[in-house]
Fold this sequence. Notes:
Blueprint: E1 2-6, H1 10-21, E2 25-29, E3 41-44, E4 47-50, E5 56-57, H2 60-68, E6 75-77, E7 84-88, E8 91-94, H3 99-104, H4 110-116, H5 131-139, H6 141-153, H7 169-175, H8 182-192, E9 199-202, H9 207-217, E10 221-222, E11 229-232, E12 237-241, E13 244-248, E14 250-253, H10 257-264, H11 269-276, E15 280-290, E16 298-300, E17 311-313, H12 315-318, E18 324-329, H13 342-357, E19 361-374, E20 392-394, H14 404-434
Parallel strand pairs: 1-2, 1-14, 2-10, 7-16, 14-20
Antiparallel strand pairs: 3-4, 5-9, 6-9, 7-8, 11-12, 12-13, 15-18, 15-19, 16-17, 17-18
Helix pairs in contact: 1-9, 1-14, 5-6, 10-11
Amino acid sequence: MTVGVVGAGISGLTLVRSLEERGADVAAFEARDEPGGVMRSRRVDGRVLELGPQRLRLTPGIESLVDDLELRDQLRIGDDDQPLYVYHDGSLEVVPLSVREAITTDLLSPRGKLRILKEPFTDPQRPGETVDEFLVRKFGRQAARRYFGPLYSGLYGTDPRDMLMEYSLGRALDGAGIDGSILTWVARKVVSGRDAPPICSFDDGLGKLSERLYEEHADSIALETPVERIEETGEGYEIVTPDGTERVDDVVLTTPAPTSAALLESVDDGLATTLREFNYNPIGMVFVESDLERDGIGALVPSGSDVGISGSTWNASFLDRDRLFTCYVDPASDPEMPDRSDEELGAVAAAEFERLTGASATPIHVHRWDPGMPAYDRSWTAMDDLQPPEGIHFCANYVGRPGIPGRIRNAKRLAGKLAEDEGDRSRSAAVAESN
Ligand SMILES: Cc1cc2nc3c(=O)[nH]c(=O)nc-3n(C[C@H](O)[C@H](O)[C@H](O)COP(=O)(O)OP(=O)(O)OC[C@H]3O[C@@H](n4cnc5c(N)ncnc54)[C@H](O)[C@@H]3O)c2cc1C
C-alpha cells in the first residue's frame, strides 16, 4: 500500500509516523519550507512566540509521544491552577471553573448561580438548536452568555447564535462521552478525583514537537513541494506537484477545506463544491510585552461586546514566558481587522489589552492566519454531503476535533483503518488467487 499525504501539520506528521509503524509506504508533501502547519513557534528578540496553538494538554497519548521523541527534558509544564477571566460590564471577572469559584464569583447574580443547578432536569439537545439556545435552556441566560458561550466559541471567533449544536458543541460533548447532564458529568469527575491532564509546551515552543516528528520521518516528507492537483487513474490516484507525479493507492488530505476543494476539482467537482461551503474565520495573533503582574491563564471577551480583541492568553503567567501575552483579533471583535496593517492591528490589540488589564502593553509581533480556525457555524451542515470517493480521505480539523490531542488521535485512527483495509484487500486477493 502506498499512501499519499497532503500537508505536514500535526495531522500529516502523525499520519506519516503511524502509517510507517504499520509498514505502509508513505509519500507526504508539504507546501511550506518547514513542517508543523499552524503549530509553529518563532523566536523574536529572544522570546518564544507561539504563532498558532499556545499550549496543549499532556494527555497519556501526548506524553508517550514526547517520550518516544526524547523531548521530556524540554517539556515545560504550565501552571493551570490559575484563574481564567472573562470581560463583563467593564471589567475582568474570574470564570468559575471550580465549585468554590462558582459560589464566590461576582460574574453571576445569586439567582443566576441557582439557575445553573436546574441543568440536570433540562432536556438533552434538541434538533436544530443553536449553541446559544442550548446553553441558555440548560444553564440560564446569565451563565450561558457571560461564560459558557465565550468559553466554547472563543477560539473559533463565531457567535454561539450562529453555531448549530449538531455540528459543533454537540459533537464535542459526544466525543467526551457526555450524553446526559453536563453538571452530573462534571460532579462525577470531581468526586472520582480525575483531573484534566496538565497543560504544557516545550522550552522552544510547540513547534519543537513538529520539528522532531519531521526529523524522524524526513525521508518520506517533501518540504517546499505544494500539491497542485490530484487525479484519478482507475487503479488509484496521482498526486501532482511541481517536482513530478506520485502514484498512490490512497490519498489523505490534511489541508483546510478550501485548499482540499481546489486539489480535488478533477477527481469529483461535486465534492469540491461541498468543500468550498465550509467557512473559516481569519485570526490575527498580536504578541505584546507587558508588566502585568496578575496570575491568570488568559481572558475571554464575549462576542457582541465593545472590545476590539476576542481574548488573550497570558503566556507570561502560566508558562513563565518573560512578560509575553498573546491577543486575538478577528472580524467579529474588530470588523476592520482584515484591512488593517500589522502596525495598526498591533496598536489596537495593545490598547485593548491595556483597557482590560490596566497594565501598559507594547506590540512586538503580529501574525495572521487566513484561513484561521474552522468557524463551525451554519455552513457546517455541508458535512452531511461530504462523501469522498473510495481512496480519498480527510484528516483535518474541519471534519474532526480541532485540538492537538484530538488531531493526533484522528490521524492514528485513520492510519489503523487504512492498514486494516489493506490487510482485508490482501487476504481477499490471496483467496481469489488460490481459487
Ligand atoms: C490560532 C490557533 C490557535 C490554536 N490554539 C490551540 C491550542 O491552544 N491548543 C490546541 O490543542 N489546539 C489549538 N488550535 C488548533 C490546532 O492547532 C489545529 O487544529 C491543528 O494544529 C491543525 O493541524 P493540521 O495538521 O490538521 O492542519 P494544519 O496545521 O493546517 O496543516 C496543514 C498543512 O498543509 C499544508 N498545505 C497547505 N496547502 C498545501 C498544498 N497544496 N500542498 C501541500 N501542503 C499544503 C500547510 O502548509 C500545512 O502545513 C489552534 C489553532 C489555531 C489556528
